[in-house]
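Q: Okay, next protein. This is Transport permease protein from Nocardioides terrae. I've checked the sequence twice, so it should be correct. Can you predict the 3D structure?
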Amino acid sequence: MSFLRESSIVFNRQLRMNLRNPAWVLIGIFQPVLYLLLFGPLLKPMIENLGGNAYTWFVPGMLVQLGIFGAFFAGFSLIGEWREGVIEAERVTPASRAALLFGRLWRDLLQLLVQALVLVLLGWILGMDASVGGVVIGILLTLLLGGACAAASNAFALTTKSEDVMAPVINLVMMPVLLLSGILLPMSFGPGWLERLSDFMPIKHIVNAVRESFFGTFDASAMAWGVGWSVVLFGLCIWWGTAVFKKENA
């Protein structure tokens, strides 16, 4: 079987599982929507004083948060499949190990796309001022980042095979990412040393690029850094995920 056919078989199975339990899609969108509804009004006077539209600034951050945190939990279902013997059953088939990973990634990316569209639609309802073209570019960057996080989550899940290990590690990673990437507040509001430290956070550059696309300014430097980091993280995580799935075949 070709790679596309093999990965589509895995994708169809994963999609059927999600459709039988669509609560995960709703749970994934719940947190950023709450931030948008409850934190957005608090942020609105602050951002508008800087001369910008609060929701045009805030929605891109929520998109990136959705791409990171939603995808990071993708591996938990993989641990369940491993316990039930699904992974072992897939390993005895002639399907390539990369297809086993990508079939799951297509499911994760489709789920992220649906959630992103809901979030953007809500942002427009609340008064976001962003062009359709800018939104499309922002969502594409989010999908790249989400694919990277989902691949890393699957790789880590197969490495640890334990939710008790995975959950605290994810929480440990999420905190500095949330605080240093400028998702919730502009890093310029903090002290100089904190802003300089945030420059070493790759997610910050992706957030800036998504915001640039939403504002329609497309600053060359910001977009280059954001696109570059999105591609690099996606490539590295896909490599890691594929290597772990291949190792499982040993």
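A: Here is a summary of the prediction. The chain has a mean pLDDT of 84. The two ends are 21 Å apart (CA to CA).
Q: Noted. On to the next one.
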